[in-house]
Amino acid sequence: MPTFEGSTIQAAIQKGLTHLDLPRDAVNVEVVAEGRKGFFGIGRKPAIVSLTALAQQTTSVAAQSAAPASAPAASAAAKPAKPAQPAHQTMTPEHRRADAVALKTVQRYLLAMAAGVQAPATLTMKRAAKNHLTVQLQTAKPGLLIGHHGKTINAMQYLGQVYLNHHAHSKFNLLLNVGEYRQRRSGILARLAERTAREAIATGQPAMLEPMPAFERKQIHAHLANSRHVVTYSEGDEPRRYVVVAPKPRIS
């Protein structure tokens, strides 16, 4: 079944009708994705619909009823294999331009978001090995940019990462920092990991941490990776995914 995209469900349907040259009452519509507007254009996703001509749908059902049992296997075997993707793609001038534009634009978005929380800022961006980006924000109101338990800075980092994922050619990893917040937070997470491990060992029961972003969960996992007494794993769905620290079974 062909699918069509649009800024809204109605726009996607109209695009499909134009492509198929059919009126609205001649097709069956299935909504694949409702889409979303995003924030400042970041995280925007198109609406996707699948259109099936009613006559085609009826014919297809009848053909399936009359087909022998071996037909599906033969049909599947007849499908051409997807071409293998190259292991490495050479950067072209167009790819470099896409990266440069995305990096400049994401900086403007971050500054616009900072102004939006009443904490106007300036920034510096450093690009390290393996496309790791560190953006350092300078502001007279760091508390507003960081937010309660880092919620504001983490949300800004998430939105910036989503923008780069959608618009840059290269795969970038973005880290947003205000002052020395990330360094202080790293120390807090290390102490939290140790305290939670002691709790799990003392009680003999798994201990669950509060939900936190993926890059902070990785720090917890890494800190306790070599522990002889506990194991760690993540549970739940984003954005409420959390780390569980559990005692290792004792070997008698």
Description:
- Helices cover 44% and strands 21% of the residues.
- A hairpin with a 6-residue loop joins strand 8 and strand 9.
- The longest helix is centred in the middle third of the chain and has 24 residues.
- The protein has eight helices and nine strands.
- The relative contact order is 0.08.
- The protein has three domains: 60 residues, no CATH class; 86 residues, 2-Layer Sandwich (GMP Synthetase, Chain A, domain 3); 65 residues, Ribosomal Protein S8, Chain: A, domain 1 (2-Layer Sandwich), CATH 3.30.1370.
- It has a three-stranded antiparallel β-sheet with strand order 1-3-2. A three-stranded mixed β-sheet has the order 4-5-6. Strands 7-9-8 form a three-stranded antiparallel β-sheet.
- It starts with a strand and ends in a 5-residue tail after the last strand.
- Helix 4 packs antiparallel against helix 6 and helix 7 crosses helix 8.
- By secondary structure, the protein is an alpha+beta fold.
- About 13% of the residues have low confidence.
